[in-house]
Each structure stands twice: as structure tokens, then as C-alpha cells.
TrEMBL record:
Main localization category: membrane
The keyword Lyase appears for this protein: no
Localization, UniProt: Membrane
Species for this entry: Arabidopsis thaliana x Arabidopsis arenosa
Molecular function via GO: peptide-O-fucosyltransferase activity
GO biological process, alphabetically ordered: fucose metabolic process
Protein name as catalogued: O-fucosyltransferase family protein
Record field: transmembrane: 73-94
Its membrane topology: Single-pass type II membrane protein
Pathway: Glycan metabolism
InterPro entries: GDP-Fuc_O-FucTrfase, OFUT2-like
Length: 563
């Protein structure tokens, strides 16, 4: 049976002459100019005091500062809190039980030698951080959040020092514990309160014989999903059933989202697949084709609707005919979209025709705050209307349980084709790998996440370099990517059982889902893939106060010239 001590024992009472000699050699090896000193048992029981008035007087004389008492309190209070924390023995207040074996003091072994060197390094880092906090506080009165963040970092660092000093003496799974874990679980990042009770919504109650044909042509799948969500808002405003495009004209939406679930969320039929629409359209029964009575373009420039001859040919191949010319109700340029109201949309797109088409609305800027709120602008009983289908969601959860665990950071590291795209912007959003690694490491330290999930199109040469630079406290932080298919692994069994294996759009949505469920997310500025992940995190309630774009508020430390 292991006996547990009810109170801590002073380390000075069990020191031997040999141990003091070893400790002197240890400090000489660390190349520091630290003077050796001895502390008597009586001095060890004393507690340091901090006299604000005395320090204020000394500072006034040294720096010629004329501080009022109130100003002094604002400046020195954070420092007092930190000094009290560092100088007080909390073992009398918190019952932390530590095995007697921790305090066995034989000669310094190699493990003690290594842990003391590490602790010495961490103490110096803490000293440097405290000076930084002091200088920042004196020169610029910090906000409460800044002070809390600074104090948290010191608590975290102090905990590392304790673990380093105790590591040679640990047996089994013994840990020092600590009361702070309960207050800072998951690091200093909290979930964002989305305040769903204040949502502004519109009821979507379509007329059963009036349809809106969604046209989404710009960009990749993420653009099309954002476009589809805006089409839902238009359909609600115009009281129409939304027709999801065929996979022969657009993406295969039914493989990545659950269309029937959208109807369940609203308690009525508001969306239909193209195949369902084909079966019920009364014109098809007469003329053996589907007829779009009116084709309305939201944008007139650079070309109406993005619809060219190729897309018209695809529509005709589906058995769709378009009546009249492409109609544009206003002058609207994709490069400079103007703010539009719901009333303007209703007035300009209202029609008595049975079937109308509107496209492309990806760049449309209609009631932005309304559309971007958590859950979207339409009233429903689900968290969000457009989300991964059940098979993809379950596969993502199984992957997380297998490889990541509850606390992980997700990174969308967009690289392919991004260099030219970002350098055309001011400031650029394409960062050198070492600078990106530095930004990521700072966030990892704050979140205290043991692993990082990587969603990327980067080459192995780039991800390999990134992995080699992600080092925290002397340890490499693993980068995890989805592995290639392996029959021995069962986390992705649902996908290949249902014929979804190898579908690039399914894999992209799987990546989005894993990122959306992470503790903290780092996105790529300017990427709609990132924006769709942020939408899911906002709607699912997984958004964190620490979510950010890679190297936010920084500029690349090197930018190539233009061609």
C-alpha cells in the first residue's frame, strides 16, 4: 500500500552535503550567473510582502512618475496578483495529495539533472514573461481580458515547472494534480455564445405549384453550397419550392447533404430534387420536357448569370427549355455588389410563372446580417438547414474517436493555387511555412491541444516542413491527416458500404465536418472552404473565441514580386 502524505515536507530539511555540491555543478553547467544561496527553515516559512505605496514612491523617484493612488492601483494590481500567486504556498488551501516517494532525496541522478535544467529554463522564461507583462502594463493599461490571459499563461508555465521538477520522482500514473485544471479546462478558449434567442427569421411557406430553379455555377463545391443557402432565402421570400439542380448540370448534392432532412426541419415540403421535380411537373407530361418560364439573372456584369452556351447545352440535354431571353432586373456587378433589402428582392423577382430560375446568387449581398446569423434567416427546428448527411457526420465522429480525441485544433492549410491569389490581395494571405508554424504554435500553447488535424491541398514537401517546425516545450505536436483507405481500419466503413468511397466531394465534406467539430479552428483567409466550416461551427455551436485565420493580424514576412 502506498502511503499518502497529508502535508508537504520542506525540501530543505532533507538536503545532504553531497546534494548541495551536485546542485552547484548543475547551475555551473547551465552557463548562468546565478549566485548560490541558502534558505534557513525559519526564512522558508516567511511570506513575501508587496507594498504598493513603497513601490510607488520608489518609482516616482526613479522614473519621475507622478501617479495618483487610483492610477497606481490600476497599474500594479495585475502585478500584485501574479506575485501573490507565485509566492504563496497554496498547499495549505488545496488538499493536493502527493506520494512520499516524491520527496525522497538521494544523490542527483541523471533524471533529476535533466528535469532541473528544464525547470531552470522554464523559470527564466517565466521571468521574461513577467517583465513583459510589467512593461506592457506600465506603458498601456491592459484590459481585464489581457490580464486574465497573461495570468493564465503564467499559471500554465508554473504547472510545467512543477511537473518538470517532479517528473524524476513519479511512479505509475501519479501526477501533481492542481486546482487550476477545473477553471481552465481546454485552455483559455471558451465557446462563443451565439444568442440564438434573438434570431430574426422568415417563415418559408411555399405555394405547392410554384418553383424556383437554383442556378449555381461559380467556383467549387463550397461556393455552390453558399449559393444554395442564399437560394433558400430567395425561395422563402418568393414563396416557392426550391428545385435542387441535377448532378448532370451541377454537383451531386444528394451524396453530401440530406435533402429530405431540410423538409423535416421545416415540417413541410420546401425543397425537391430535380428528379422529383421532373416526375411531378405537369408540362413534362404534355410536352416531354421541363420548361423554365422565366430565367432571371441577379448579376448583369461581367456576363448575365454566368450562363454560357455550354451551360445552355447541358440544360437542354436534361430536357429543360428556357422561355425568352435572360432577364436582368437591375444593373449589378459581381466585382462591386451593392447592398439589397428583402423588399427589393421581392419586388424585382416576383412572378406568377410556375417555374422561374435565378442565378448566380453566390456574390449576392442581400440582408447580410440576417443571412449570416446562426441557423440562417429561415425559421426551422434544426441547428442548420445545410449540413453533411448522416453517413459523413458519423464517419467524421468515428475518425475523431480513433485518431484525435475531444481536444484538438483543426487547420485548413490552403496552398494549391493560393500563392498567386493571395499576392493579388493587399495584404497577402500566403505565409512562409516557418512564419505559419510560429503562428500555429502560439495557438497550440494557448489551447493546450495535444494534436492538430490538417486539412490541406499542400504538397508533402510543405507539410513535412510544417510538421518539423511544430515544436512546443521540446516535443513535436503531431499533424494528423486522413490516411489512405485501409481495410484493417473501420472508421470509414460506412462510406465504402454505401458506395461513397473515393468521391472527392464526399471527402471534402468529411474534412469540413472534422474541422467543424474541433475545439479550435484555424482557417485560410479568402477561402470559401474555410467560410463554410465557420458557418457550420457557428450553426452547430462549436465556434470558439480562439478561432482565427492563419496568422491573423500579421503580414507575410516575405512577398514575391508580381509577374
Amino acid at each position: 500500500m502506498v502511503k499518502v502524505s497529508s502535508s508537504t515536507t520542506s525540501s530543505s530539511s532533507s538536503s545532504s552535503p553531497d546534494e548541495e555540491s551536485d546542485l552547484q555543478n548543475l547551475l555551473e553547467e547551465s552557463d548562468s550567473q546565478i549566485d548560490q544561496f541558502r534558505i534557513s527553515d525559519e526564512a522558508a516559512e516567511q511570506r513575501p510582502t508587496f507594498d504598493v505605496e513603497s513601490l510607488r514612491s520608489r518609482l516616482r523617484r526613479s522614473f519621475k512618475l507622478n501617479l495618483t493612488k487610483k492610477q497606481s492601483i490600476f497599474i500594479f494590481l495585475p502585478i500584485v496578483i501574479i506575485l501573490i500567486y507565485l509566492s504563496t504556498d497554496f498547499s495549505n488551501y488545496f488538499s493536493v495529495k502527493v506520494p512520499n516517494s516524491v520527496f525522497r532525496s538521494n544523490t542527483l541522478t541523471g533524471r533529476v539533472h535533466e528535469s532541473d535544467l528544464q525547470a531552470l529554463y522554464l523559470l527564466r522564461k517565466q521571468e521574461s514573461d513577467l517583465f513583459s507583462i510589467w512593461n506592457h502594463t506600465v506603458s498601456n493599461l491592459s484590459t481585464i481580458d489581457d490580464v486574465k490571459s497573461a495570468v493564465f499563461r503564467q499559471i500554465s508555465l508554473n504547472r510545467q515547472i512543477q511537473n518538470a521538477l517532479l517528473s524524476p520522482h513519479k511512479t505509475g500514473n501519479v501526477d501533481i494534480g492542481g486546482s487550476s485544471d477545473g477553471y481552465f479546462a481546454g485552455g483559455s478558449c471558451r465557446k462563443v455564445d451565439q444568442k440564438l434567442n434573438g434570431r430574426k427569421t422568415i417563415q418559408w411557406k411555399p405555394r405547392p405549384d410554384k418553383f424556383l430553379f437554383a442556378i449555381c455555377l461559380s467556383g467549387q463545391m463550397s461556393n455552390h453550397l453558399i449559393c444554395l443557402e442564399k437560394h433558400m432565402f430567395f425561395a422563402a421570400l418568393l414563396k416557392r419550392v426550391l428545385v435542387i439542380p441535377s448532378h448532370r448540370f451541377d454537383y451531386h448534392y444528394s451524396r453530401i447533404i440530406d435533402i429530405d432532412r431540410i423538409n423535416t426541419c421545416l415540417g413541410r415540403t420546401v425543397v425537391v430534387s430535380f428528379e422529383e421535380f421532373w416526375k411531378k411537373d405537369k408540362n413534362r407530361k404534355k410536352h416531354h420536357h421541363v420548361h423554365i418560364n422565366r430565367f432571371i439573372c441577379y448579376f448583369s456584369k461581367p456576363e448575365p448569370c454566368y450562363v454560357d452556351k455550354e451551360h445552355i447545352t447541358k440544360l437542354k440535354a436534361l430536357g429543360i427549355t428556357v422561355g425568352g431571353k435572360l432577364d436582368t432586373p437591375w444593373e449589378e456587378d459581381i466585382a462591386r455588389p451593392s447592398n439589397k433589402t428583402a423588399e427589393e428582392v421581392e419586388a424585382n423577382f416576383r412572378s406568377d410563372d410556375d417555374v422561374i430560375a435565378i442565378g448566380d446568387v453566390f456574390y449576392a449581398n442581400v440582408e447580410r446580417e440576417w443571412v449570416m446569423q446562426p441557423g440562417g434567416p429561415v425559421a426551422h427546428k434544426c441547428r442548420t438547414l445545410i449540413e453533411p448527411n448522416r453517413l459523413i457526420l458519423l464517419t467524421a465522429q468515428r475518425f475523431i474517436q480513433t485518431f484525435l480525441g475531444k481536444n484538438y485544433i483543426a487547420l485548413h492549410f490552403r496552398r494549391h493555387g493560393f500563392l498567386k491569389f493571395c499576392n493579388a490581395k493587399n495584404p497577402s494571405c500566403f505565409f512562409p511555412i516557418p512564419q505559419a508554424a510560429s503562428c500555429i504554435t502560439r495557438l497550440i500553447e494557448k489551447v493546450e491541444a495535444p494534436v492538430l488535424y490538417l486539412s490541406t491541398d499542400a504538397a508533402e514537401s510543405e507539410t513535412g516542413l510544417l510538421q518539423s517546425l511544430l515544436i512546443l516545450n521540446g516535443k513535436t505536436v503531431p499533424l494528423v491527416k486522413r490516411p489512405a483507405r485501409d481495410s484493417a481500419e473501420k472508421w470509414d466503413a460506412l462510406l465504402y458500404r454505401h458506395g461513397l468511397e473515393g468521391d472527392s466531394q464526399v471527402e471534402a465534406m468529411l474534412d469540413k465536418t472534422i474541422c467543424a467539430l474541433s475545439s479550435v479552428f484555424i482557417g485560410a483567409s479568402g477561402s470559401t472552404f474555410t467560410e463554410d466550416i465557420l458557418r457550420l461551427r457557428k450553426d452547430w455551436g462549436t465556434a470558439s473565441e480562439c478561432d482565427e485565420y492563419l496568422c491573423a493580424n500579421e503580414q507575410p514576412n516575405f512577398i514575391a514580386d508580381h509577374e
